[in-house]
Amino acid sequence: MDVFTAISQRCSVRAYKATDVEEEKLKKALEAARLSPSASNRQDWKFIVVRNKETRKKLAKAALGQSFIAEAPIVIVACGMEPKAMLACGQPMHTVDVSIACAYMILQAYELGLGTCWIGAFNEDEAKKILSIPDHVRVVAMTPLGYPNQPPSRKVRKNLGEILCYEKYE
Ligand SMILES: Cc1cc2nc3c(=O)[nH]c(=O)nc-3n(C[C@H](O)[C@H](O)[C@H](O)COP(=O)(O)O)c2cc1C
Questions:
Q1: Which ligand 1 atom sits nearest the alpha carbon of residue 10?
Q2: Hey, whose CA ends up nearest to atom 7 of ligand 1?
Q3: pLDDT tens digit string along 121-142?
Protein backbone atom coordinates (compact mmCIF):
# COMPACT_ATOMS: atom_id res chain seq x y z
CA MET A 1 0.00 0.00 0.00
CA ASP A 2 1.40 3.40 -0.89
CA VAL A 3 1.25 6.35 1.49
CA PHE A 4 -1.48 8.19 -0.39
CA THR A 5 -3.72 5.13 -0.43
CA ALA A 6 -3.38 4.85 3.34
CA ILE A 7 -4.07 8.56 3.79
CA SER A 8 -7.11 8.56 1.53
CA GLN A 9 -8.64 5.25 2.66
CA ARG A 10 -8.12 5.34 6.44
CA CYS A 11 -11.07 6.24 8.58
CA SER A 12 -11.74 6.33 12.31
CA VAL A 13 -12.91 2.98 13.68
CA ARG A 14 -15.43 2.99 16.50
CA ALA A 15 -16.26 -0.73 16.68
CA TYR A 16 -13.68 -3.45 17.26
CA LYS A 17 -13.41 -7.23 17.20
CA ALA A 18 -12.07 -8.91 20.34
CA THR A 19 -9.40 -10.58 18.15
CA ASP A 20 -5.95 -9.94 19.57
CA VAL A 21 -3.40 -7.86 17.68
CA GLU A 22 -0.25 -9.72 16.68
CA GLU A 23 2.87 -8.51 18.49
CA GLU A 24 4.71 -7.87 15.18
CA LYS A 25 1.89 -5.63 13.97
CA LEU A 26 1.81 -3.71 17.23
CA LYS A 27 5.59 -3.27 17.07
CA LYS A 28 5.45 -2.05 13.48
CA ALA A 29 2.81 0.57 14.30
CA LEU A 30 4.94 1.71 17.25
CA GLU A 31 8.02 1.77 15.01
CA ALA A 32 6.22 4.25 12.77
CA ALA A 33 5.79 6.52 15.79
CA ARG A 34 9.42 6.02 16.81
CA LEU A 35 10.71 6.94 13.35
CA SER A 36 8.58 10.06 12.97
CA PRO A 37 10.19 13.51 13.01
CA SER A 38 10.25 15.76 16.06
CA ALA A 39 11.55 19.26 16.75
CA SER A 40 15.38 19.09 16.95
CA ASN A 41 14.91 15.31 16.96
CA ARG A 42 14.14 15.52 20.69
CA GLN A 43 11.76 12.56 20.74
CA ASP A 44 10.40 13.62 24.13
CA TRP A 45 7.53 11.20 24.01
CA LYS A 46 6.30 8.02 25.59
CA PHE A 47 3.69 5.60 24.28
CA ILE A 48 1.88 3.48 26.82
CA VAL A 49 0.50 0.21 25.46
CA VAL A 50 -2.48 -0.92 27.51
CA ARG A 51 -3.76 -4.47 27.08
CA ASN A 52 -5.31 -4.97 30.52
CA LYS A 53 -9.08 -5.10 30.10
CA GLU A 54 -9.93 -3.34 33.35
CA THR A 55 -7.49 -0.54 32.58
CA ARG A 56 -8.95 -0.19 29.08
CA LYS A 57 -12.41 0.14 30.60
CA LYS A 58 -11.17 2.80 33.00
CA LEU A 59 -9.59 4.71 30.10
CA ALA A 60 -12.85 4.54 28.15
CA LYS A 61 -14.60 6.00 31.17
CA ALA A 62 -11.98 8.74 31.40
CA ALA A 63 -12.63 9.39 27.71
CA LEU A 64 -16.08 10.68 28.60
CA GLY A 65 -17.58 7.19 28.41
CA GLN A 66 -16.60 6.40 24.81
CA SER A 67 -17.04 2.70 25.46
CA PHE A 68 -15.82 1.51 22.05
CA ILE A 69 -12.29 2.38 23.18
CA ALA A 70 -12.30 -0.60 25.56
CA GLU A 71 -13.60 -2.96 22.85
CA ALA A 72 -10.21 -2.94 21.15
CA PRO A 73 -7.62 -5.33 22.61
CA ILE A 74 -5.10 -2.50 22.87
CA VAL A 75 -5.26 1.16 23.79
CA ILE A 76 -2.20 3.30 23.10
CA VAL A 77 -1.79 6.44 25.16
CA ALA A 78 0.62 9.03 23.77
CA CYS A 79 2.41 11.36 26.18
CA GLY A 80 4.67 14.40 25.91
CA MET A 81 7.51 14.36 28.42
CA GLU A 82 8.67 17.99 28.25
CA PRO A 83 5.51 20.07 27.96
CA LYS A 84 7.23 23.36 28.82
CA ALA A 85 9.31 23.35 25.63
CA MET A 86 7.97 25.77 23.04
CA LEU A 87 8.69 26.13 19.35
CA ALA A 88 9.94 29.55 18.20
CA CYS A 89 6.60 29.95 16.42
CA GLY A 90 4.82 29.78 19.77
CA GLN A 91 3.34 26.30 19.51
CA PRO A 92 4.01 23.77 22.27
CA MET A 93 6.61 21.31 20.99
CA HIS A 94 5.13 18.26 22.65
CA THR A 95 1.69 18.75 21.12
CA VAL A 96 3.13 19.01 17.63
CA ASP A 97 5.69 16.20 18.02
CA VAL A 98 3.38 13.68 19.65
CA SER A 99 0.62 14.44 17.17
CA ILE A 100 2.94 13.79 14.22
CA ALA A 101 4.05 10.49 15.79
CA CYS A 102 0.43 9.46 16.36
CA ALA A 103 -0.48 10.34 12.79
CA TYR A 104 2.34 8.16 11.45
CA MET A 105 1.30 5.36 13.79
CA ILE A 106 -2.36 5.35 12.77
CA LEU A 107 -1.44 5.32 9.09
CA GLN A 108 0.92 2.39 9.61
CA ALA A 109 -1.77 0.60 11.60
CA TYR A 110 -4.16 1.09 8.69
CA GLU A 111 -1.70 -0.50 6.28
CA LEU A 112 -1.58 -3.51 8.60
CA GLY A 113 -5.37 -3.87 8.51
CA LEU A 114 -5.80 -2.42 11.99
CA GLY A 115 -8.27 0.22 13.05
CA THR A 116 -7.60 3.27 15.22
CA CYS A 117 -9.51 6.31 16.38
CA TRP A 118 -7.75 9.42 17.56
CA ILE A 119 -9.18 10.22 20.97
CA GLY A 120 -8.87 13.81 22.14
CA ALA A 121 -11.94 13.91 24.32
CA PHE A 122 -10.71 12.61 27.64
CA ASN A 123 -10.16 13.83 31.15
CA GLU A 124 -6.38 14.10 31.33
CA ASP A 125 -6.18 14.01 35.13
CA GLU A 126 -8.20 10.80 35.23
CA ALA A 127 -6.11 9.21 32.48
CA LYS A 128 -2.91 10.15 34.32
CA LYS A 129 -4.20 8.67 37.56
CA ILE A 130 -5.20 5.39 35.89
CA LEU A 131 -1.75 4.98 34.30
CA SER A 132 0.41 6.46 37.08
CA ILE A 133 1.65 9.18 34.75
CA PRO A 134 3.78 11.80 36.56
CA ASP A 135 2.35 15.28 37.05
CA HIS A 136 4.70 17.06 34.64
CA VAL A 137 3.92 14.71 31.74
CA ARG A 138 1.01 15.59 29.40
CA VAL A 139 -1.29 13.15 27.69
CA VAL A 140 -1.75 14.33 24.11
CA ALA A 141 -3.91 11.59 22.64
CA MET A 142 -4.96 8.01 22.90
CA THR A 143 -6.23 5.50 20.39
CA PRO A 144 -7.76 2.07 20.47
CA LEU A 145 -5.91 -0.40 18.24
CA GLY A 146 -7.59 -3.50 16.91
CA TYR A 147 -9.37 -5.18 14.05
CA PRO A 148 -12.35 -3.15 12.80
CA ASN A 149 -15.81 -4.56 13.37
CA GLN A 150 -17.52 -2.08 11.05
CA PRO A 151 -17.49 -1.37 7.33
CA PRO A 152 -15.28 1.60 6.39
CA SER A 153 -17.16 4.89 6.30
CA ARG A 154 -15.12 7.70 4.87
CA LYS A 155 -15.85 11.28 5.75
CA VAL A 156 -16.17 13.97 3.13
CA ARG A 157 -13.43 16.59 3.17
CA LYS A 158 -13.39 20.18 1.99
CA ASN A 159 -12.18 20.71 -1.57
CA LEU A 160 -8.62 21.94 -2.04
CA GLY A 161 -10.05 25.20 -3.42
CA GLU A 162 -11.68 25.93 -0.06
CA ILE A 163 -8.51 25.53 1.98
CA LEU A 164 -5.86 26.83 -0.36
CA CYS A 165 -4.58 30.21 -1.42
CA TYR A 166 -1.42 31.30 -3.15
CA GLU A 167 1.27 33.83 -2.32
CA LYS A 168 -0.74 35.49 0.48
CA TYR A 169 -3.56 34.74 2.87
CA GLU A 170 -6.94 35.16 1.26
C1 LIG B 1 -7.52 16.01 17.66
C2 LIG B 1 -8.59 14.98 17.40
C3 LIG B 1 -9.44 14.59 18.43
C4 LIG B 1 -10.41 13.61 18.20
N5 LIG B 1 -11.15 13.15 19.27
C6 LIG B 1 -12.05 12.17 19.06
C7 LIG B 1 -12.74 11.57 20.15
O8 LIG B 1 -12.55 11.89 21.31
N9 LIG B 1 -13.64 10.61 19.86
C10 LIG B 1 -13.89 10.16 18.59
O11 LIG B 1 -14.71 9.26 18.42
N12 LIG B 1 -13.21 10.68 17.54
C13 LIG B 1 -12.30 11.65 17.75
N14 LIG B 1 -11.57 12.13 16.70
C15 LIG B 1 -11.77 11.58 15.36
C16 LIG B 1 -12.43 12.59 14.42
O17 LIG B 1 -13.79 12.74 14.77
C18 LIG B 1 -12.27 12.07 12.98
O19 LIG B 1 -10.91 11.95 12.67
C20 LIG B 1 -12.92 13.01 11.98
O21 LIG B 1 -14.32 13.04 12.15
C22 LIG B 1 -12.63 12.58 10.55
O23 LIG B 1 -13.06 11.26 10.35
P24 LIG B 1 -12.06 10.12 9.89
O25 LIG B 1 -10.99 9.96 10.94
O26 LIG B 1 -12.93 8.89 9.78
O27 LIG B 1 -11.48 10.52 8.57
C28 LIG B 1 -10.59 13.08 16.91
C29 LIG B 1 -9.71 13.47 15.88
C30 LIG B 1 -8.74 14.39 16.12
C31 LIG B 1 -7.78 14.73 15.00
A1: 27
A2: 119
A3: 999 999 999 999 999 999 999 9
